[in-house]
Amino acid sequence: MVRQSSVMDIISPIMVGPSSSHTAGAVRLGILAKNIYNKKPQKVIFRLYNSYSLTGKGHGTDKGLLAGVLGFGVDDARIRNIFDMDVGIEYDFEFTEDFNRHPNAVDIIFEGDLNMKIEGDSVGAGRVVIRKINEFSVKFTGQYNTLLLVCKDVPGMISRITGLIQNVNITSLHCDRQVRGEEASMSICLDGDLDEKAIKIFERLENLYLVRYVEKLGS
Prior knowledge:
CATH superfamily of the largest domain: D-3-phosphoglycerate dehydrogenase, domain 3
Oligomer: single chain
Strand order of the largest sheet: 2-1-3-4-5-6
Number of domains: 2
CATH architecture of the largest domain: 2-Layer Sandwich
Number of helices: 6
Order of helices and strands: HHEHHEEEEEEHEEHE
CATH class of the largest domain: Alpha Beta
Helix content: 10-25%
């Protein structure tokens, strides 16, 4: 007799499948990537590494990643049958090994009006870290609201940006650049909320090429 899956198989303990690293973590990586990209892509490629690549299908990693990119929560019952749904975008999965990467690493590659590659890891118990966006190093986990910026590397840019953040504390600030005077990135984690008016100010600033405000993940 074929056993029918129940809702408890899907959401207990708040995940699809037997492993929170491979399922709940995958959903959260997909959600963060979706919010960073902030557009509807034409295609998404998921490149799974190492343990994710070897056991991801059995643990529901592939379903979780796609679900997150579509905006589903970790306890959404639709995840179980997501590959039977018309999700409105093209997607593909690639499986590979690279032992320079975390055991549960993934690249989420968006193709469309804006092309973007987001690299992240599932680090255990459903926790995740975004490591890179395109060629820029970042480090944020979804535990805090995060202001993500790509800007021209000019003197005074950091103080200019942080000076506009008022009535909220900065918990961490990570900066990266490839070439002096060219593009640089900042990921600024905050312990409070930025209102829409403040975000609009950043969007109008000179020498800022990309502005994303990524709200913290729910529990």
